[in-house]
Amino acid sequence: PPDQGDADQPALPGLTGVLAAAAIRAPSGGNVQPWRIDVTPEALTINVAPECTSAMDVGHRGSAVALGAALFNARIAAAAHDVLGPVTVTEHTGGVPLQATLRLGDHSDADLAELYRPMLARESNRHHGTPGPLDPATAEALRAIATRHGATLRLLTTDTELAGAAGILAAADRVRYLTPRLHAEMISELRWPGDPDFDEGIDVRSLEMDAGDLAVLDILRRPEVMAHLADWQAGSALGEDTHDRVRASCALAVVTVAGDALRDYAAGGEAVEAVWIAAQTHGLGVQPVSPVFLYARSDDELRDLSPQFAGELAGLASDFARLAGTGPDDAIALILRLAATGPASVRSRRRLDRVRALSR
């Protein structure tokens, strides 16, 4: 059966209900769905929800990426139903960090409309995959799509690049485990069989782990275990899962934008969603990768993230920027792991109570 929130089962009636159902299918860090969506008969408005933020969502930048992806989904649905209209994006209005409004119009867009079904089928795929080269034609198509949406796509594809990225991302994962606040937030995102709320967060079945790895993860949930590892300056194995996944990839896709205002990150979110949909259409499994340092833009922000490991994070961020070829004016919207794999075992679900109908 279709997931709740699928655009074939809109949360609200009417065309704006269809648009809202498409919007909430967008990806977000930890599947926290950091938005509030208001619909009227004439428009759909997506607001970043500050109460849904986390430590890694520095300055609501990750939330802005999620908003951009949600807006792109809504535009796809509008194009498919011939009601595409103008978009306005506003920062810091009425206590809301970022707001985007799509008004219903009478336009279509064939390129957007043809993405409607692929957009609904988009999923996070955490199977490890089979290592192998990325098809050059696929790589070129993905780069062109990012460019079309005002972003730049950098692809790490060589064995040397993937090995380097695997080491950096594994080390960043270790920091996430060993920093109490980051660890607590990460664990709070996981949903285990029997948990009451599966409409947000990450179903552990979607991690595509075997029983042994899930048993280890169950141990790693315990904060006292992480505290001991931090005291012993240990825990190098904490990043092994990320390391192995990256090494099993065809490529890492780094989506960047020029500028670091929230509207820039939202534009990056549109590009991320477009690249993600296209990569899956080309037969690739796609998994988002969010290292701890992803949305930090200064040493002070790194210290706020992890006082104990701020220096290490600064080094890792610098190493990754050098590897990916990004400069100080580039902002990374998201990193996507591309792999040759079968479909995901479980699709993430969505909360319907983040959408409300207004009379005007």
Automatic annotation (TrEMBL):
InterPro entries, per the entry: Nitroreductase-like (IPR000415)
- Could you tell me one molecular function GO term of this UniProt entry? oxidoreductase activity
Its name, as the record gives it, is: Nitroreductase
Organism per entry: [Mycobacterium] manitobense
